[in-house]
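PROTEIN DATA CARD
Card holder: N-acetylmuramic acid 6-phosphate etherase
Chain length: 312
Origin: Halalkalibaculum roseum
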Amino acid sequence: MEDKQHESNNLFEQLKKLDTEQRNPNTRSIDLADPKDIARLINEEDKLVAEQVGKRNDQIAKAISITAEALQEGGRLIYAGAGTSGRLGVLDAAECPPTFGTDPDKIIGLIAGGKEAMFVAQEGAEDFEENGRKAMDEISLSSKDIVCGLAASGRTPYVHGALREAKERGSKTFFVTTVPAEQITISVDVLIDVPVGPEVIMGSTRMKSATAQKMVLNMITTGAMIRQGKIYENVMVDLMLTNEKLKERAKRIIMMFADVSYNESEKLLEEAGGHVKTALLMALGELSKQEAKALLDQHDGFIRKAFLSLQG
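Structure generated from the sequence above:
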């Protein structure tokens, strides 16, 4: 009983010091505000988030480089988080296959409490480091992989357990948090601390903290995909044609870059087996499917490099 009380006291003291658990002086009268003022106050605080993220561009760039290299060498990017942070990791992982044509097993989102926690909070699931360690074991984490811990508070035991297990296995580690670095008690390869300050509603890290984390994750995965040739100019050209919208987008991309008709773009996609990059290079270089695929392989999947080689 005394141990439990001591543990509760420690947690209380930790939370009391966290930036995200402080009262925001700008929103102390929000309970009396009308709807327009509520919207304005939230928006004013949200404007501060992008500025804070921008101060960590160097760390984010390092994470992009490490991720691109790991994926190229057969590794995986594993997100580990709890609550809102965990859901953001799952979301980012789920968005990569249709957007960039990645293997669903290459970027994985893990949340304390499992799949059920995506929809209904699983109380207590985040409170034990052992749960995070076990999650790494369940996915057979290897030294080729990267584990990116997500915790607004910087202290979530589940996340710390995952990161410590990753370190012991020789995996690279990132930590994305929204409290200052001096409040972090765990060592990682890349710390991306984005101190967004007190939330609009004290402790509600689904607000500014979540926005900051989502921005960082977008930058890491998008940057890594750019570095792997999944973008041509500023257009995603390695998308998977899993629904009608994506099929039509693929046709439009080919029409836009290769100056061909709708019917021609549709025919090219069919000939390329639905692989947009192959179809596009076939159109740009007047190549067969086999020639286009061989040229893409020769240039590590970069369409621009492949196309320029034809002109040189």
